[in-house]
Amino acid sequence: MKKTKRILSSLMALTLSAAMIGLSPVSAQEDATVGNSASSLAQMPESKDTTQNALDLLEEALQKDPNPDLARERLCEDLGVSTLTDLTYSTPYHYYDFYTQELAVPESGDAYTYWILLYRDGVYCGNLSVTPALGLIQKDLKPYACVETALEQQDDMWFGGAIVDGLPAELVYTGGVIYSLNFGETKTDLVWGQLPHSDYNSGVIIETTTTPAVTTTQEPNLSILGDVNLDGIVDLKDAVLLNKAANGTVALNDAQL
Q: Of 89, 103, 209, 231, which has the fewest Cβ atoms less than 10 A away?
């Protein structure tokens, strides 16, 4: 009984706090801020990093290798050049998480990845994916038609990836279309801001407007802490009901606790 009263008291305090927050007025400025953040999510972010050039990023990544000179020599061999300056490079593009629409940054917090286009004699001929902080340089020595078209038409491009239908996908957004680079260049029906997405580890699909409904054998727990009357809102009504429960005038079931 004492344990139940302690639980009820804690819930009452939380409910009262939530109810008071819900009653607090929201200023016009705060309301505008919420609206702006929601609308900005669907907008295209800036993709180019103009503060560092590609060779600086490559050199930073090479210096992470135990033998930078050997690593540089191997990279030149892979690229078919005697020195890295034999090629020209695009301004590095930031690499994005296309699902969250944010810069792709691992949990370490500062290991940004950049996508760099390679040019041989002025002709686009391949791509590099570089994560300087981790010393990673991935090479893709073939041009993509969607990138060539974007370059010819001077269209903006966004490079990145997402977990689509349980599998990681390398994506390029340009000309209003998202292309997948995983198994050959493919024009997809994915929509910016509405990507079907699933957790790679659990396979649980997060619903969007572009994914079909998914049925599960276990219903999700959608209860809200402090929502004692189970109306989907935490307000003063819940606080009153909790007070009655604490006084013993009403009894609450397991779903309400």
A: 209
